[in-house]
Amino acid sequence: MDIVERINKLKEEKNAVILAHNYQPKEIQKIADFLGDSLELCIKAKETDADIIVFCGVDFMAESAKILNSDKKVLMPEIEGVQCPMAHQLPSEVIKKYREEYPDAPLVVYVNTTAETKAMADITCTSANADRVVNSLDADTVLFGPDNNLAYYVQKRTDKKIIPIPEGGGCYVHKKFTMDDLKRVKSKYPNAKVLIHPECSPELQENADYVLSTSGMVKAVLNSEDEEFIIGTEVGLINRIELELEKLGKTKKLIPLREDAICNEMKKITLEKVERCLLEERYEIKLDKEIIERAKNAIERMLEIK
Ligand code: SF4
């Protein structure tokens, strides 16, 4: 048996399911039962009747799966170096400071945050629903963190006053992209449609054909008549779109805005680690009960918004 067959056998024996984020390496995407962005995986985690969830992604995603499935075993194939740096940019002391300054403003946090941060929020959001989440709130001023670029994206789509917290918060991968990158790639592929993730700078957002979450990008490419696309997000998404195109027997030209837009934390998972994870049932995500309850309210409130 090869490693993929062994993983599938273990999965069946243990009634396990593998959830993988769109930025995972190609070989991991291929063995996943469900592939998606944070919102899609949150929904899948809530719906699954598996006993074990193996989460191939970064720390906050596996935590979200645990928050929504406190009775299930949630495992990560790796625990070292899988901490999303942005998810740790809103610790409790920073939140307390802003809460004191804006006592009447609800706090919206990106799902790319730790369980502790979510537990202090009124509601969570993803890049696929951030504007809808903010528009659903009965308040004129909203605290929004930790991604300042996503806050800009939301500000453009709502009449509310958005206070981005903390200053300078954001994703190091998406901050790499510059207007020079766009000019360089666009001069080579002048007819390509430009898809930019809302974690990218305001300037890039303003110069995109579409500003979309990763799931939005997948749908845009699959449903479009266009043949060439410049992809302004982590390069792993190109594998995901190619897998979907393959299923439809189609090919399109997908050009990374930068070849080196790589999230190191997302690339720590390997097939060998997934197999070991299933065999030894480690590393298990454990969270405090009270944190789970409070964070769950913030996530479930988001999931109610259509
Ligand atoms: S791409 Fe950015 S936000 Fe996403 S996991 Fe990596 S560091 Fe975190």
From TrEMBL:
Pathways per UniProt: Cofactor biosynthesis; NAD(+) biosynthesis; quinolinate from iminoaspartate: step 1/1
Record's catalysed reaction(s): iminosuccinate + dihydroxyacetone phosphate = quinolinate + phosphate + 2 H2O + H(+)
Name listed for the protein in its UniProt record: Quinolinate synthase
Cofactor remark: Binds 1 [4Fe-4S] cluster per subunit.
Keyword list, A-Z: 4Fe-4S, Cytoplasm, Iron, Iron-sulfur, Metal-binding, Pyridine nucleotide biosynthesis, Transferase
Functional description taken from the UniProt entry: Catalyzes the condensation of iminoaspartate with dihydroxyacetone phosphate to form quinolinate.
Residues reported to bind iminosuccinate: H21, S38, Y110, V111, N112, S127, H197, P198, E199, T214
Main location: cytoplasm
Gene name per UniProt: nadA
Family from the record: Belongs to the quinolinate synthase family. Type 2 subfamily.
Cofactor section: [4Fe-4S] cluster
Gene Ontology cellular component list: cytoplasm
Binding site for [4Fe-4S] cluster: C84, C171, C263
SUPFAM superfamilies, alphabetized: NadA-like (SSF142754)
GO BP of this protein: 'de novo' NAD+ biosynthetic process from L-aspartate
Originating organism: Methanocaldococcus fervens (strain DSM 4213 / JCM 15782 / AG86) (Methanococcus fervens)
EC number(s) from the headed UniProt entry: 2.5.1.72
GO molecular function: 4 iron, 4 sulfur cluster binding; metal ion binding; quinolinate synthetase A activity
Subcellular location, record wording: Cytoplasm
